[in-house]
């Protein structure tokens, strides 16, 4: 087992700065997910931990040992790739045991490790098959088995589920979670899928343009996003964002939207009149729908309705822009109708419009 510590890590290709002064500590035994949009630098950062990318500046340490200039094979890590990278002419058994064979371990020990990993992953009956005879999910499990037999200090996963269909992704996702629960090996997992990040990670690192935007547990990022980028990236459907100006109305701080309508702000929010802010609320945090005007509520015209069976989604136009709400109950509403939406006070997030940073309550 081992912690992973990055200190002021940078990566540049000429004048292009891909990773910009990243510092991060991943505790021993943690399952850490690096998430962000395409091109944010998450795979580059993973490859720098692995030693597959030379760092431009800073330091990488694994289990309190500086490995910045250490060869990948000597870092005691195992990597699972998106493409499986299996040898087509070798059986499952031979693929899983190949690294151990190259390390000149005794045959009996190799066999024991391979069979143990195969049992853990449900691959016992497939050990004598070739990769071409396996499904995509089975191939990915072989790739994971090849990593497990090495008993590394750190597992590195580079978007390992990208080539699988939706149903299989969900299944293998669960298998990786169970694998970590059993082995308790420090794991760093890269994905661009925020749902994957939320369901798998104990610790999530949100990246944008080579910088860390926020680090926290899934619920910390969901409930208290540090800025507009994190708020918009985490959560599906995406969080609603309404721009407006703070105004004092009858002794109460309220938000004036573009059409002049007023919306209640959370009590104790540290804002001042004429300040431009972004009012953000997740679609499922809307509490009430009314056909009559409600003071401090949001006037909305329904443009579309989607029923998924378990949920009803309303797509609306409001005085501050488009707005999506999700309800568990089936509402008696129609497209074209005007309704009043009452966001839950505990679900409201206020951000400074200029900096994008979260504004705290007192």
UniProtKB/TrEMBL annotation:
Record-linked InterPro entries: AAA+_ATPase, ABC_transporter-like_ATP-bd, ABC_transporter-like_CS, ABC_transpr_MalK-like, ABC_transpr_MalK/UgpC-like, Mo/tungstate-bd_C_term_dom, NA-bd_OB-fold, P-loop_NTPase
Keywords: ATP-binding, Nucleotide-binding, Transport
Highest taxon of source: Bacteria
GO MF terms, alphabetically ordered: ATP binding
Domain ABC transporter stretches: 4-234
Tagged with keyword Nucleotide-binding: yes
Coiled coil: none
Pfam families: ABC_tran, TOBE_2
Keyword ATP-binding: yes
PROSITE patterns found in the cross-reference section: ABC_TRANSPORTER_1, ABC_TRANSPORTER_2
PANTHER family assigned to the protein according to its UniProt record, in alphabetical order: BLL2173 PROTEIN, MALTODEXTRIN IMPORT ATP-BINDING PROTEIN MSMX
Protein known as: Sn-glycerol-3-phosphate ABC transporter ATP-binding protein UgpC
């Amino acid at each position: 087992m081992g912690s992973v510590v990055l200190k002021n890590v940078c990566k540049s290709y000429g004048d292009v700065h891909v990773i910009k002064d990243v510092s991060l500590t991943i505790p021993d035994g943690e399952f850490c997910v690096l998430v962000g949009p395409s091109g944010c630098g998450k795979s580059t950062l993973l490859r720098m931990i692995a030693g597959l990318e030379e760092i431009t500046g800073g330091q990488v340490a694994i289990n309190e040992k500086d490995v910045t200039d250490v060869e990948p094979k000597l870092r005691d890590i195992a990597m699972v790739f998106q493409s499986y990278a299996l040898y087509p002419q070798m059986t499952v058994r031979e693929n899983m045991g190949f690294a151990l064979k190259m390390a000149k371990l005794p045959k009996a020990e190799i066999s024991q490790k391979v069979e143990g990993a195969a049992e853990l992953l449900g691959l016992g009956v497939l050990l004598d098959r070739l990769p071409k005879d396996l499904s995509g999910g089975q191939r990915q499990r072989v790739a994971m088995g090849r990593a497990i037999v090495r008993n590394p200090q750190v597992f590195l996963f580079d978007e390992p589920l990208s080539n699988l269909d939706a149903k299989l992704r969900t299944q293998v996702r669960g298998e990786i979670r169970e694998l970590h629960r059993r082995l308790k090996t420090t794991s760093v997992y890269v994905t661009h899928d925020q749902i994957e990040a939320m369901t798998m990670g104990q610790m999530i690192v949100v990246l944008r343009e080579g910088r860390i935007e926020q680090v926290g547990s899934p619920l910390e990022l969901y409930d208290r996003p540090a800025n507009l980028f994190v708020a918009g990236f985490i959560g599906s459907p995406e969080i609603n964002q309404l721009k407006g100006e703070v105004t004092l109305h009858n002794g109460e701080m309220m938000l004036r939207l573009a059409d002049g309508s007023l919306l209640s702000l959370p009590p104790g929010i540290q804002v001042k009149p004429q300040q431009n802010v972004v009012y953000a609320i997740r679609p499922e945090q809307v509490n009430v729908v009314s056909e009559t005007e409600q003071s401090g509520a949001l006037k909305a015209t329904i443009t579309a309705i989607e029923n998924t069976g378990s949920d009803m989604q309303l797509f609306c136009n409001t005085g501050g822009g488009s707005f999506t709400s999700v309800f568990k109950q089936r509402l008696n509403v129609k497209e074209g109708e005007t309704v009043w939406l009452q966001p839950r006070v505990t679900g409201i997030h206020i951000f400074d419009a200029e900096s994008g940073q979260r504004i705290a309550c007192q």
